[in-house]
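# nightly structure sweep
# worker-07 picked up a monomer target from the shared queue
# config: single-sequence mode, recycle default, output format = structure tokens
# input follows
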Amino acid sequence: MIELRQLRYLIAAAEAGSFSRAARLLNIKQATLSRHVLEVERRLGIVLFDRKTRGATLTPNGRTYLETAQRIVNEFEELNGWVRATKTGHAGRLAIGFYTSFSAGNLRATVSEFGEWFPDVKVRGFERGRDMLLAGIENRLLDIAIMIGEAPYRGLMSRPFWSERILVAMPEGHPLAERDRLHWTDLTGERFLLTARDPGPETRNLLLGKLGMPGYAPEIDMDDVSRDTVLSVIALGGRISVVAESALGIQVPNVVFREVHETNGHIRIGYSGYWREDNENPVLRRFLDFVAVRYSLPPIPARTPSAQQSGEEQS
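# output follows
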């Protein structure tokens, strides 16, 4: 059995062209290096080095053997590097669930920048409804889900991430399109179209809370279509919609967006991340730390042994 250490000695001797120079570079005694080289040659039954007064050069058999030895050592180093990177979260996989548009906004920017900082991490995105995202976390199919709001869920960790502006999408010929900014009162009497999929129900609740009053409720159509289809229908006229800032990346002809304002400024909607406390994926921790730095959030405390044990007992 040839040891990996001995292969490194052979490679060092071949590159240095001298046992003495190789020993100095490896910080070992020349006698030690020579002994290991002889041991390898004895085990193989071939001569690897042509020993001369001025140094040592590879024999033809030595060159053939060292080509493979070099590849083995390189692959071993790559494997060790991958293990180190995986343990620290610099490599691996991260499954992110979401139900908002990925065409623009903070989600797209965050995932894109995270990929630039950690190119050896493979990020997989899953667009599902809230219930499916929560089930995915519980079943460990997802590492983290990013959703609107800050609702607590039993057994899950969460924290606010970022916020986005609330916009009204309307046909470019709509009377409200002439204004640079809108207020909720400007939307009274309008007919709305929302997707029945998430985040449509949350948007409907927002509209009812902002526009509903005794004797009046906004007219809201909920269709089982995608966000893109909603905007395409909006372009035909007759209805408007309410979307988050991330929808700005969806390019639909004849549709314009206007911000909604209140007395203290434009309206924003918050997004939060949800994950299992006992998720031990180092990449998840790396992503959470990255988000905290990017949005100037307080760092998430490291899990304590007691917390880890509690998580194992619950699972």
